[in-house]
Amino acid sequence: MFELVRAGGWLMLPIILSSIVAIAIIIERFWTLNPSRIAPRSALADVWAKLRYNQLDAAQLRELRMSSPLGQILAAGLVNAKSGRAIMTESIEQAASHVVHDLERYLSTLGTIAAISPLLGLLGTVFGMIQVFSQLVTEGTGNPGALAGGISTALITTAAGLCVAIPSLLFHRIFLRRVESLVVELERESIKLVDALHSSRTVEIRNKG
Hints:
By secondary structure, this protein is an all-alpha fold. The protein has one domain. It starts with a helix and ends in an 11-residue tail after the last helix.
């Protein structure tokens, strides 16, 4: 492995660093974008139960805000619940914008790695081919083995770049899709809370489980 890295030249260093960053982001996003941590199934039901028994005080709101991103959004709405539907909705939207920003954290970096890794590999191959043709000019074609070895070495960076880019692009798309699903779920639960407090129609509150 070390021989391959050394044969690929100095451009292998940014490719390896990109792979380390990509792995770290993938692990972190897998942990962070867990639906049960972002939007716990019992959050809205617990809030509604406390509202019915007038148990939602400042301490409970603070605990709700710290519990999860959904709790942060619901707490923002509850603080302004008595100001009317429009104000409550606006406060929820503002809190949701911050939550969505946190959900999308590092995804642009992962997408950038997926885009530049093959380009770094291609650049390394171009440099390698330049060296091969320089060898042709100075030594001619008398040593085919050396030329073949030079070409294979030049292609190492392209292979390495693709090995980094393909999984990075795959997980970037997976995480984007997961964020979209989470945003829809957060919006659905927030609308339920607004309707439950400012609407005469019956709203189904999801129970635990």
